[in-house]
Amino acid sequence: QVQLVESGGGLVQAGGSLRLSCAVSGLTLSSYAMAWFRQAPGKEREYVSLISWSGDSTYYARSVKGRFTISKDNTKNTVSLEMNNLKPEDTAVYYCAAGADYMRLVRTTGVDYWGKGTLVTVSS
User: What are phi and psi of 80, to 5 degrees?
Assistant: First the structure.
């Protein structure tokens, strides 16, 4: 059974930092691209960041570029999202996602597997 389990969410002040982690089991990370999505209250789930199956390429939504960093460790079967200079508008449930085709992983329709999410709340 494929499982993606997020951790590291919580409450942080604006301007602070958090590191999210996703533990993956049941699939080989070297064969899958990984992504982070987020969903704020009352809004649709949106793409945040993407890393290719090889780990050579990373991509970011314009709203987080320069503040967030995605990484993947194929040996440890983990993917992380380092979030710096957090803003109240970053408040959302963050979801780890896996997809065989990284070119389609910028959309929810390109996701093959989802985690259950972890809540990040950024206070003023």
Answer: -130, 160
